[in-house]
Amino acid sequence: MSDSLDKVSWPIRTPRLVLRRLEAGDAQATWEYRKLPEVQRWITSGAANFEEYLGQFMAAKRYAYDVAVELTDANGQPRLIGTVMVKVQDGWGQSEIAATLRVRVERYQRLTANPPQRVGQEPGN
Questions:
Q1: Which of 87, 89, 111, 125 qualifies as a cystine partner to 65, CB 3.0-4.6 A?
Q2: Which pLDDT score, from 0 to 100, does residue 101 have?
Q3: Distance from C-alpha of 36 to C-alpha of 25, rounded to nearest angstrom
Q4: Which stretches of the chain score pLDDT less than 50?
Q5: Which residues, other chains included, contact 17 with Cβ-Cβ below 8 Å and sequence gap of 6+?
Q6: Is the CA virtual torsion 111, 113, 114, 118 positive or negative?
Q7: How many Cβ atoms are within 10 Å of 115's Cβ, its own excluded?
Q8: pLDDT of residue 2
Q9: H or E stretch including 105?
């Protein structure tokens, strides 16, 4: 399967922002904001130092699904201010959706197999 991000004509520019594919060379720039305590609090795999972060960043090209968000300054120079992960896949591949639906389907199956009865009601009535 081809990478869905390859179908986009990069970079995408607005008067203030540039969106582009994240590259291996962006590791230091992303570390500059990811090392901040107020950012690390919200990420699942915070690193203690740049070397550890670089290992995570380069592992299996995890950056391949990220889009760099750059802010353009008054001189037209972009500065990396963040990233967004974009991974197009089958909805069932998203673990949160699959887990939620699995619980709901199991609950439905239990309820339809043994419907609740009112107190004092005879089975089958």
A1: 87
A2: 79
A3: 20
A4: 1-2
A5: 69, 70, 71, 72
A6: positive
A7: 8
A8: 47
A9: helix 95-113
Q: 3-state DSSP call for residue 19? A: strand
Structure tokens at 90: 């089958």
- Phi, psi of 91, deg, nearest 5: -55, -30
3-state class of 64 per DSSP?
Answer: helix
First to last CA, the chain: 55
Within 8 A by CB and 6+ apart from 16, the residues are: 71, 72
Please state the length of the chain. Answer: 125
Please tell me the distance from the alpha carbon of residue 36 to that of residue 39, in angstroms, as a whole number: 5
Token pair recorded at residue 98: 């699959």
Q: What is the DSSP string of 65-102?
A: GEEEEEEE-TTS-EEEEEEEE-----GGGSHHHHHHHH
What pLDDT was estimated at residue 1?
36
Can you tell me which residue has the tokens 């008054």?
A: 74
Q: For position 9, what pLDDT does the model report?
A: 93
Backbone angles phi, psi at 28, to 5 degrees: -65, -45
